[in-house]
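Collaboration report, partner site 2.

Our partner group contributed sequences for two proteins of shared interest, and the home lab folded both. The records are reproduced in the order in which they were received, starting with the first partner submission.
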Amino acid sequence: MRLRLGILLPLVVLLALSASLLAAQVDPRWKPNDPERPMPPAIDPGTVGTQDVPGLPPSDAIVLFDGKDLSQWLGEDDRAPRWKVQDGYMEVAPDSGYIHTRRAFGDCQLHVEFNEPKIPTTDTQDAGNSGIFLMGLYEVQVLERWTYSEKIYADGIAGAVYSEFPPQVNASRPAGIWQMYDIIFHRPRFSKNGRVQLPARLTVLYNGVLVQDNVELSGPTVQAKRPPYKQGPDALPLSLQDHHDPVRYRNIWIRELTEEH
């Protein structure tokens, strides 16, 4: 079937517009190598940690958990969270519910360290299971993958964008050892009439290895379904999942990203 030119041109323009919005744009206010162009702010980049001692966050990061308390978090129904805090980490208290940040976030860089216990079970959904939900909607899976990697669906293992994208490689460490996610998230963009202009996007480094490369999400995370987007706020709280397993978290910080550059 041959497309008429009047139909094809709008499609080409739409694709070009989408591609341009995905990439950073050169600021037309400045000439190349312009000495008058303002310098970016200087920050302390922080330090890289070890298994025993977490690193220090960048100086412009918002620290969401420093190993001491849950003052930056709320439980379900905005009550005080019931997760345990000890020895520099927080631990899921089974059946205590999800927790979410007091603050709302949209585009961000997120650092999370987690430790999955090796649980003697034959249920692959009950093996160090938890999850990190950007804007409370889009899940990066947490699951003890070393033992059970051959027994569960690919888009439900550690490093996956749950129900959508398996990780590119298996970068997991064995259960009981601290793991690390560095996540770059861009929220979806909507037109004035509520249509999706740009879908949400995720990049994930798992233990320093790229496992999700700027993938486009089809919508919010739901098990075994692909629900459509619904227009909502530009920022919503980050949440951590209670899946009944005593998963531990530490050294959680976030940097808010802006469209200015």
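Second partner submission, folded after the first:
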Amino acid sequence: MDGWGEHHKGMRVAAALPVALLLVLTGCAGEAQSTGPAPQSTTSAPPEELGPVQPVGDPEVVAEGLQAPWSIVPLDGGGALVSERDSGLVQEVLADGTIREVGPVPGVVAGGEGGLLGLALFEDGNDTWLYAYLTAAEDNRIMRLPLEGAAGSFGLGDGEVVVDGFAKASNHNGGRIAFGPDGMLYATVGDAGRPDLAQDPSSPNGKILRLTPEGDVPEDNPSNGSPVYSLGHRNPQGIAWDRDGRLWAAEFGQNTWDEINLIEPGANYGWPEVEGAAGEDGYVDPVHQWPTSESSPSGLAFTRDTFFLAALRGERVWALYPLGEAGLDAVSWFTGEYGRIRDVSPTPDGDLWFVTNNTDGRGEPSEGDDRIWRVRLGTLQEG
């Protein structure tokens, strides 16, 4: 599928984008845009809880017995919502570790790396919506469903399509969604195994998109009438905002380099013309890169002046510390101890959750996989 579906509310990608913006790490001012109801967010801590931080002590099991979990959304009170890629189910993890089924997301057609992927919550007055990025019969799309009930008894109401028409494939589906500090919905869309789409401004694939909660194009997007926020991406699966409101993204490379990028509106990150830092005019180099054996990055989170990144093939959690113009300092944790790591998230009380993904067809599951683990965060210790 190359075209946008009927539920895209009139969106069309403009025929051209502005010239790529240069990557600048010295600026600290976030983009103060916008409007609309505030999203529920646990991506940063209150100003008094400064970092940086690191894991302290041994992780503890929060829940086990999940099947190919993909996205985790912590809830106030100690629980969480989790998507299962292949079953298409949203599961609720209670504070005591019990897992109960919230319900299926309609229309999920799992296959390869596709299925029920990213989740995000959005509060609109008295209503709470659960947004879901999913692979359907003909495309990848985003739906939203009313989240009904209370902790321990959540259910899903009738869903509606927010946007559809993203090309799907057995891999490179992207799939992460999150609400930014501006109240807008951001989505990472992979190139669906067709690298040319990443440089095609008329395609949503190989892009990071920015939408209103209803799926419309914000008036202040980089290109008038286009949902495209940045282009030239291969398979981005992690997004997070730092304390200054700047957007960062994690991206799978091909054979050489995985990347962390600081995302600037309208910028071009080079795929498939370049992979990793190339220093070529017109393309933004990553702030940090790894050999693909050390990362295969998925979920990304920011809390207390520290990024945490889930690594699949690398089988570890990366802690990333911004160094201004010098980029990021990367420190690995739990390497090889828990297998493939799909997602990470700070909890409302200041700990870190990470989610294993050993039942996704590429891991080596042990009894009880997959699991959610919890580890305490403490002040970064030098040396």
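Feedback sent to the partner group on the second submission included the following. Residues 66-297 form a domain with the Neuraminidase fold (CATH 2.120.10.30). The chain is about 0% helix and 40% strand.
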